[in-house]
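user:
I keep going back and forth on a fold encoding question. Separate attempts, laid side by side, tell us more than any discussion would. Would you put together a sequence-and-structure record for a protein of your own picking? Write it directly below this note and I will take it from there.

assistant:
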Amino acid sequence: MHPVFASVVNGEQDRFWIVLATAFFALGSLYSAYALTSGKALPRWVNLCALGAGFVFQTGFLYARGHAIGRCPISNPFEVMVFMGWSVALIYLAVGSSYRLSLMGSFTAPVVAAMSIVALFLPPRPLAASPSQPVNPWLEAHASFSMIACGAFALACVAGAMYLFQERQLKTRRPTSIFFRLPPINALTVANSRLLWLGFAFLSLGLGAGFCVGQATDVWKVAWSIAVWFLYGGILLARTRRRVAAKWIARLSILAFSLLLSTFWGIRFISDTRPL
């Protein structure tokens, strides 16, 4: 039996919520792809509803899993991937209607769908045992804020990719049908910058909470987290002082998030008692 369905049969019923969330995200992705490639002015609320429904199912899963284990549900790679996808959907639903970025949902849906699919294909693991000691609120705050920061950085990456695509279309002077449905390039610049600031603010909160945990931490994970903070801080400083062109900020947004995702194990500098 496939691990996805075996997990439902074997008692991980809450995992099935992610199957439903993935179905809605996939539906939104297919609808967006058809709307963009067909050139038809299809209503965008369908994609928004699909993202919203998937987000609701993800929220249900995280609530059930967190209640079951008695802590923030990021105790294994499956939960981490789900939480990251939830963070991306949360940030989009919160800011997607701003800065004329409703079309960003067409690019966000495939990203969240991919994260959900990867999560489902990760090996099922038994639920982590409830902690014998009281949950450290600083530790939970550190993990939660850091994950939400990743969601904002993921959307900054998406906005950067949209910016570079539109810039290339302008240079070639042979715009496709997708070009005419993209937000103004200036709006993408503003959105990219504000998403970076939002992610940096949450990352700062998470980093600060991490230093208040009051228990042993891995020095390499601490160094990694600080390095990520300086990386995004440097990007924002360069943007604020206008020493780097907007297209390079877009490229750095993509590069920084790719680096963050490829070494994601370091975003939580926690003790060895709670490995990913």
Q: What stands out?
A: The longest helix spans residues 137-172.
